[in-house]
Every structure is written in structure tokens, then in C-alpha cells.
Amino acid sequence: MGFYRFSDNPQEENPQRGYIVSANHQPKPHSGLPVVGYYNLADRAQRLDERLRDDSVRWDSKTAQTLQIDTRTGYGPRVLAPLLPILNSVITVPVERAMLESLARWDGSYELGSSTPTVFNQLLYELTRAAFADELGEVQFNNLLGTRALDTALPRLMADADSPWWDNITTPVREGRADTVKVAWRATIDHLQKTLGKEVTDWGWGHAHTLTHSHPLAAQKPLNWLFNVGPFPAPGGHEVPNNLSSPLGPAPWAVSYGPSTRRVIDFGAPGQSVGINPVGQSGVLFDAHYSDQAPIFVSGGYLAQHLSPADLAAHTRSTLTLSPAALPGN
Q1: Angle at 322 between CA 320 and CA 324, to 5 degrees
Q2: Per residue in 289-320, pLDDT tens?
Q3: Using CB atoms within 10 A of its CB, is residue 321 exposed (0-12), middle (13-18) or buried (19+)?
Q4: Domains delineated in the chain
Q5: SS in 3 state form for 3-38?
Q6: What is the pLDDT of residue 318?
Q7: Quick check: 221 and 127 in contact, CB under 8 A?
């Protein structure tokens, strides 16, 4: 009970490492006092820190752009580590053995052409459903899928062979972790074959994970065909630097949130700044700039941000003039 001292607040000024990282993760103040709250996974911040402390990288505008669109964290391999020996013992089909070998080699990257993140995310959902849905019921299980607490709980569950959650309470026998992993793997393969296609080559992340910029009026079909922008095959994923995220659930996955903009500013040369909007500069349907930045954004591209009067004059392509109507009698 009471209040923290102001000096206990998380704060840094010119740290020795030369940079500050914040990715909505739980901070660790120098005071040692825990800052309790509802935080995102630490893995995204850890990946940013891993990249930034690499002394072999010369940080400039180009390398800063690669950092923003990085698609890797250690979360997937961390979750998989205690499960791989179990999967190795139960998977015998050659095609599925190849999938397992890809999972074992996976570095946690979410790249468009890779089927490995697709298999991992479907497996993670099936494991979560097999562990929790029987105890919670459908309503509370679906509520659980939308919580940040689940992100923290799953690595702990996967590493705990003796957790009571592994038992399916709807059956007369007591299941363990190995039983549940076997069931979840089979459900993963069945769902992906039914949803994405029989061949693993159809399971690329860009096929399963897409970005659509939805307009409020698009809720009334068929206006979605007019107002929505997309879908686009989308790299990145949940809590990676390129945070094009979707909730845990069955494939396919639609991006539900992501960066509202990307921007890189060199304070030594602000006139050479670059940035990108997710959709476009105009909110007017059929305008040339309604959605012209969307393909560039999803592919990780940037546009020059012209600041000086000379640059503005040299690069102006069109001018929008807003003229209010005259009031009656004026």
C-alpha cells in the first residue's frame, strides 16, 4: 500500500550502451522494485537489444530500417525446445519428419515463403486448445486467447511435464504432456491440409498470414470491396520487431494490429528522413493517394520525407485545396 517514490520510476538517461529500448515490455528499474502491470512479451525487446548491441553493425538510416522490419524473436524456439524430443518420438511420416527438422532448425523468423512459422503457430494453438478448453469451456477459452497472460503462460506450460492442464478431463484416462502433444500435432496437420492445401509448399507464411486495412464502412458488405485495402501477404508476426500481429487461433491469420507508421530520422541530416504510412495520405475513396503506400508498407519499403521548401517544391506532384462553401447570405 502507498506510492512509489519518483526515483523508483523506470528511467534512463544516456546509458553507457548508447541506446534505449522500449517495446511495451515490463521494465526493470535500477531500484529493484517491480513495476507490476499487464505487459507484452519481453522477446521483442530482447531481439531489438540483440541487434542494437552488435558492434559489427554501423548504424545508419539503412540499418535502422532493417531493424524496424526484422521478423525474428526467440519466442518460437523457446516454446518448442521442451517439445521437440516428444515430437521426435511420435512423428514417423517422412513429410512430417521434414517439418519437424525445420522446426528444430528454426531461428524464429517470420518470412513470407517459410512454412515453419505456419506449422508452429497452428501447433501452438492446438496445444493451447488441448490443454485449456476442456477445463474452461468455449466462452472462457476464447477470452483466454485474447489475453497477454497467455503469452507468458505458454512457455512455462510447455516446459512443465507434470502440469495438471495436460489432462483432458472429458476422458476417463489421465493424459500427460506427451499424449497431448501427439494429439495436437495430428490436429495441426489435419487443419493445415484442410485449410491451406495438401502440399506443404502451400503453407507459406504469406499464404496463411495476411494484412487487410479495414474501413469502418466495409462492415456493410459489399462495401468491403470498395473501401478495404488488401489483403496482402504479410511478413512479421506477434511480438517480433515487425509487429504485424494476429491473435492466437487457427489458420489462416489476419493481422489485427501493427505499426501506425514507420519512420527513421537522422538528426544529423533531418532532410534525408524516410517514413511510410500503412495505407496512404488520403482518406478519400478513389483518390490517387487513398492506398498507394499500402504495398510499399507491407513489403518493408520507405519513402523520402521532404522537409525543406526547396525539396517540397521539387517533389510536389499535386496540390489539394479545401475551399469552404460560402454561407447563405454572404
Answers
A1: 165
A2: 999 999 999 999 999 999 889 999 999 988 88
A3: exposed
A4: 1-70 (no CATH), 75-207 (1.10.1400.10), 260-314 (no CATH)
A5: CCCHHHCCCCCCCCCCCCCCCCECCCCCCCCCCCCC
A6: 82
A7: no
